[in-house]
Write a structure and sequence with these properties.
Structural class: mainly alpha
Largest sheet: none
Number of strands: 0
Helix content: 40-55%
Distance between the termini: 34 Å
Strand content: under 5%
Mean pLDDT: 91
Length: about 90
Amino acid sequence: MDDFSETRSERVDLRMTPSAKRTLQQAAALTHKTLTEFLLDSGLNSAFDTLADRRALRLDDASWKAFMSALDAPPKNNPRLRKLLARKPAWER
């Protein structure tokens, strides 16, 4: 996670059940973080993942057609990839 150099000046107040707070405190302790650090790290990771999944792809007509053609084209033969995918996973060896 990126360490932001800005000074923390904003607050967020949360209301939760005592059991939810205990669970979050336990998870924070296991990761050697304060509750605030744990919540901020977890929340930012989730936010970054959510935002990354929703990035807009803006292309002009010619680029869009080329992009769609590439998606519609059959995959190229890749013997090394086929060999790799045919191997048993490490946990089954």
